[in-house]
Structure formats: C-alpha cells, structure tokens
Amino acid sequence: MAQLNEEALETKYNGNVFARLFAYVKPHIKTMLLALFLVLTVTGIDLIKPVLIGKAIDDHIEGYDQPFYYVSPQDAEITFDGLSLSRKNPASAGGVQEVARLIYYNEEYYLLTDLTEADLEPLKAWEEAGHPAVSVSAHPTDPAVIYGIRFSLNGQEREAKLLSSDQLSQLRAADRSGVVRIGLMYAGLLVVGFFLQIWQNWLLQKTGQSIILTIRQEVFEHVHSLPLRFFDTNPVGRIVTRVTNDVESLNQMYTQVLVRLISNTVLIIGYAVVMISIDPHLALISFLFLPVVFGITLAFRILIRKIYRIVRTKISALNTFLSENISGMKLIQLFAREKTKAGEFRERTDDLYKSQMKELFTFGLFRPGLSFIANFAYALIIYRSGVSVLAGTLSLGTLYIFTSYIRSFFEPIQELAEQFSTLQNAMASAEKIFTILDEKNTILEREDPVRLTEFKGRIEFKNVWFAYENEDWVLKDISFVIEPGERVAFVGATGAGKSSILNLIGRYYDIQKGEILIDGVNIKDLSLADLRRAIGQVQQDVFIFTGDIRSNIRLLDESITDEEIRAASEAANAKHFIENLPAQYDEPVTERGSTLSAGERQLLSFARTLAYGPKILVLDEATANIDTETEQLIQAALEKLMEGRTSILVAHRLSTIQHADEILVMHKGRIRERGTHQELLAMNGIYKKLYELQAQGV
User: Fold this and answer.
1) Are the C-beta atoms of 617 and 642 separated by less than 8 Å?
2) Which of 633, 666, 629, 631 lies closest to 648, judged by CA?
3) What distance in Å separates the CA atoms of residue 81 and residue 411, rounded to the nearest whole number?
4) Domains, the chain, with CATH or none
5) Per-residue pLDDT reduced to its tens digit, 591-645
6) What's the rounded Cα separation, in Å, for the pair 668 and 689?
7) What is the mean pLDDT of residues 136-151?
8) Which residues of 524-535 are buried (b: 16+ CB within 10 A; e: fewer)?
9) 9 C-beta neighbours (distance < 10 Å), count
10) Which pairing describes strands 68-70 and 83-86: parallel, antiparallel, or unpaired?
11) Is the pLDDT of residue 577 over 70?
12) Rounded distance between C-alpha atoms, residue 347 and residue 333, angstroms
C-alpha cells in the first residue's frame, strides 16, 4: 500500500492570518475591550504594589530618621515627656523650626531634642560618617545604667536620651499606623485584583469558546459544501485534524495570548517609565540587555514557527494514517498485516517525536537563555543599587521598588516570548484552517436558480464529455434520453463509466463538455437542494450513522413523520427485520451499522431513500452485497417502487436488470450498445458475451 505523502497535500497559506483571525473577534469587541480594561487595571495594580511596600519601608519602617516637629498641644500627634510632637511640618521659614529626632546607634534607639531644621543635614552627615566621637552618659542616679550618648554637632555638645521599648513604641505609633494603613491598602489591592482577574478570565474564556465554536462550525459547514472532488484528494484524517486539533489550538490564543500580549507590553512600558523616574542611570544599565533579548526572541520566533508548521503537518499525517487503518482494520487482520502496520505506525510516531524534540530543544534553550540574561541584569542592578544605598544616595525602599521592577521587567519579556511561541503554534494551525476555508466549491449554483415546483423525471444527456483529471476522459460524447417513469439500466466492465453517469445526474461533479437536462432544464440552472432532493440514490457501500434506526431513515429531517418512516420501511421490505429488533425503530445503531448485517444495512438504506419520496430512483449496485433471500425481497419491492418513477440501475448481475425498459452497454467511456434484454442478446455483441460469461458462472 503506497504511503500517502501528507506534506505534499499541505499548501502554504499566503494571506494575512492575524487580520483574518481578528475578524472573528469583531462580534465580541465590546467584551474583549472590557476584558482588556480589566487586564490593564490589574496591570496597574501590579505596578502600584511595589511602590506601596517601598513607601512603607522609607516612610515608616526605615523612617526613624524623619524629624518630629514641635507643635502646639492642640496640633500634637504624640505627647512624649512633656513635648507636643507631630510628623507634619508646620512649614516654618529659615530652618529655625524646633524638632526632635531618633538616632539609631549600636542597635539602640535614642531621642535627640532641642534641634532645629538647620541641624538635620549635619546630623545625617554625622550618621553617615559612622557616628564619630560618641561617649556614653550614665544615668544620674545609677551610674551602671546607660542614660544616653553625647557627641558634638555644629560645635555644640549634644546629648540623646536612650529609649525603652515602650517609649520607642509610643514615639513610632504613627509609623506603626502607617505600616498598617499601607498593609490594608496592599491587601485591598490584592482582593480587588483577585476579583478583577476572575472577571477577566471568565470574559476571555467565554469569548474564546464562542469564537472557537464559530470557527469549528464554519469549518464543518464549509467542508460539507465542498464537492466530492475535494474528498477524492484529501484524506479524512487530515480534515478531522483541521476541525478538532487545529481549531482547539486557537483557543489559548483567543483566551490568553492576545490580551496578555497587550498587558505585558503595557507592563514593560510601565516598568521602564517608573525605573527611569527612580534612577535613570540604573534604568539605562538594565536597558542595555534589551537588544540581546529582542535579538534572541526574533531568532526564536522565526525558528519555532517553521518547527510548528512541520509538527502540525506530521500530526495531521498521523491522524490520517490512524483514520485509514482503523477503518480498514478488517482487511489488515484478514491479511495478517498487524506487525507491518505497527512498524509503519512506529516510523510515523518516531518522525513526529523527532520534530517535537526539535521544538522542545529550541524552547529549552530559549527560556533558560532569557532567564540567564534577566538574572545577570538583576545581579548587576543589585550591586549598583546596593552601593548607592551604602553611599546614602538611594533609600532602602527605593532599592526595593527598583529591584522589584527590574525582576518584574524581564518577566513580561519572557512571557511575551512564550506567548509568541503559542501564537506561532496558533498561526500554523490557522494557516491550515484557512487553507481549507479557502477551498472553492467548484459546483457553483446560480444566484437565481430555476425552481421546479414538481419534477417529472425526464433525463437527457447531450454529447457529454467528462474527466476527473485534465483530459483523461471517463465519458466520451455520451447522449441518451430517459423518459419519465422509464427504467434504464447501465452495464459494462469496471471503469466503463457507469457510476460516473450517476454522479453527474446529481451534479456531484461538473462536466467539461455537453449538457445534462432534467425536465428540459440544464442541471447547472437548477437549485442543488431541489435537484438532489428529487433524486433518491441507493449505493453499494451503505453508510449508517451512529444513532438509532429511526434517525438513520429520517436523517434528522423532522418533516418526515413516523408513519412515513414505517411506510418506507414496509415498502422496502425492511419492516420485518426492524420490528424483530428489541427496540424496533428506536434500536441503537453503532458506528457504520456494525451490529447489522450487510443485507439489513442495504434494506435500511433503501427505506431511507424511499422516505424522501424521490421522483428519480438511482440504484448503484444496490443488490451486490445482499443474499439471495434479501434480494428477492428487494426485487419484489422494486416492482412497486419504480412505478411512476424514473429509475436508473447499475448492476453487474445482469439477471437483476433483464426487465428494464432499456439497457445501455458502456465500454471505455462510450455507449456501445442499447436496447432491451432480448434485443441486445440478438445483437450478438458485448452484452451477449457478458450474459454468457455470467450464465457459465465465470
């Protein structure tokens, strides 16, 4: 069995994939904009959170060096040791406002009073110099107890009082309240962000599933609209892959990637702006790594897209192989080819495995590479900002904000890279989906087709030429007329063109030359739905859907009543086996009708055709797979069914068409003989030879 070259069937899509995918978002644009607003709000919350922690560190946790201003008792926030103090500056001029200030020395806190605002800068310089020339003062009543420390400031001797833990707690009550207040704000932002993310995710998931439902339905309906020629050249497994796997791969793109791309871009810009505002020098050091990151990302994007295309193609090929071999399992087991097929499957899975390993290897190098660059930049920034903190040019809270931002700055860049990979996967799938959606239906219907209120059943072929490919003619200059109610049979060797004629009557293929008329109207001018509804066809290979007996006769057409189903079953002589089933018309039917015999499936197919009441009856080897007893049942039914209907029969067993009004003998695409059974025998030609061969059992 020749191996199908799936890659040869894949064509590269040349359109604008992203613009076409975005078209599916337009009906949901308001919802997507709301989701985007929620994402940006959550992004803003993420930007604010480090600022709050930095503020808590600088203003409250490390805020001991903030001065306490002397104020009037009515304006006091803190009353301590007879002093009315406040952290709010009463805005005095000239730096003469009296203040008090905490000093942290030798792991203890001291309070220095009787200062002015002009003393604050020299005091800070003294601290940064490492507290030089400090002497410890003893308690006046107990020399063994430390009372405070003495040092010189601006040429004056100063003394700071040692604080107990209770006194320190009293003085720093405002700082504690500030930390609690900021903590509550932080918690509030977390709660708000949590519920906004739930809302955002729900909107995105709902919208994404709606879009995926639309695409899947569109692909399915479009596949049904395509001519049989498309299915002649495209494996079932490939089509199934498009409707299932490829459509599903778009889900993550719509539910996460598109919005996250925007939010991560906003995050990167936001982090960059804040870092520049905090310390332009450190920010520029961080930005030095961006060209490297973007270069790696671009190379990864180009490479991974090629790999994704290969992987999707090989998955499609594997599904095609599975579909074909599961459908042909009986034949495989019949010829004991299980091991051979298992080996072929192993080759295909190994091929897919190697392609997926290339994908994993590429991704495995990319993510750690970006992580290394991010961590290297983070370490460099920690070093530089740490030096600034020690030099007193950068506060500890600002250090926290900056380091939080620098780590967070590279996270959305890494996420963008991952989202690009997901996007590339989706793009590869979308290309294949749109390739199918762009398949044109070559069986075109007029915008204003001729609508026949009732078909009489007159069929005429006028000099018809037909080929499936190019000019490899299957039918050559075929002409005949079948009057309403006539029974005409086509016979001939395999490949003579009999079944092609039946396909052309229903316009499943279009002819290259000539005309086909139904009731005097060219079938190209008729509505396809009207034309095919007027033709009832029973084929040799009967297809039974999963469901029950009733649904397989009705085919979901609720206009066909239960009474009509029973009448069609009785007319087709299928009633006797249906009513012997445990659930009769509600009897479950498995895939392809595997629980029914070949004869029962054929009878069921016959009942299905009759339920639609066609004016033209087409029997394509309808009795080929039926035992003699069942054939007798159908032959008995046919005599009644063909009354008033134009009937066309194709059969290899000449005994089944001897009573036809006319028999047309096909040979190499042409009509070689025509006449009744007796007339053809009298011609002593092709028909007689076929008849004698069958009579001899050859």
Assistant:
1) yes
2) 666
3) 51
4) 10-57+177-437 (1.20.1560.10), 66-168 (no CATH), 456-534+648-698 (3.40.50.300)
5) 666 667 777 777 788 788 888 878 888 887 766 556 666 667 667 666 766 777 8
6) 16
7) 80
8) bebebeebbebb
9) 16
10) antiparallel
11) yes
12) 20
Q: Does the pLDDT of residue 661 top 80, yes or no?
A: yes
- Provide the token pair at 353: 């495995």
Structure tokens at 523: 């079938």
> 3-class DSSP state for residue 103?
strand
Q: Which pair of tokens denotes residue 468?
A: 């499936």
Using the predicted structure, report yes or no on whether residue 7 has a pLDDT greater than 70.
Answer: no
Distance CA 496, CA 174 (A): 101
SS3 assignment, position 160: strand
Q: What is the DSSP letter of 329?
A: H
pLDDT of residue 194: 92
Per-residue confidence band for 12, with pLDDT thresholds at 50, 70 and 90: low
pLDDT tens-place string over residues 417-435: 677 777 777 887 888 888 8
Query: 573: phi > 0 → left, psi -120 to 50 → alpha, else beta; which?
Result: left
Q: Are 352 and 318 in contact (CB under 8 A)?
A: yes
Q: How far apart are CA 267 and CA 13, in angstroms?
A: 33
Radius of gyration for the alpha carbons in the chain, expressed in angstroms and rounded:
43
Tell me what pLDDT residue 9 has. Answer: 43
3-class DSSP state of 466: strand
489 Cβ partners below 8 Å, 6+ apart? 648, 649, 650, 651, 657, 660, 662, 663, 664
Residue whose entry in the numeric block shows the structure tokens 């002409």:
479
666 to each of 309, 459, 463, 652, how far by Cα in Å? 47, 18, 15, 12
pLDDT at 624: 58
Burial class (CB in 10 A: 0-12, 13-18, 19+), 326: exposed
What's residue 189's pLDDT?
Answer: 92
Using the predicted structure, report yes or no on whether residue 68 has a pLDDT greater than 60: yes
Given phi > 0 = left and psi -120 to 50 = alpha, else beta, which region is 259? alpha
Q: What does the pLDDT read at residue 626?
A: 60
pTM: 0.67
Between 59 and 459, where is the model more confident?
459
Note the Cα 581 to chain centre separation in Å. Answer: 43
Which one, of 599, 604, 602, lies nearest residue 585 by Cα?
604
393, pLDDT greater than 60:
yes
The whole-angstrom separation of Cα 103 and Cα 158 is: 12
Residue 118: which residues within 8 A CB-CB, separation 6 or more?
95, 96
Mapped to the 3 state alphabet, what secondary structure does 518-576 carry?
ECCEEHHHECHHHHHHCEEEECCCCCCCCEEHHHHHHCCCCCCCHHHHHHHHHHCCCHH
Q: Say if residue 78 is exposed, middle or buried (CB neighbours under 10 Å; 0-12, 13-18, 19+).
A: middle
Task: State yes or no: pLDDT of 4 exceeds 50.
Answer: no
Q: How far apart are CA 591 and CA 594, in angstroms?
A: 6
Amino acid at 631: E
d(CA 204, CA 137) in angstroms, rounded, equals 68
At residue 200, the pLDDT reads: 85
> Residue 680: what pLDDT?
87
Residues in the chain: 698
Give me the residue label for tokens 């991704």: 363
DSSP for 222-280, please give it.
Answer: HHHHS-HHHHHHS-HHHHHHIIIIIHHHTHHIIIIIHHHHHHHHHHHHHHHHHHHHH-H
Q: Where on the phi/psi map is residue 544: left (φ > 0), alpha (ψ -120 to 50), or beta?
A: beta
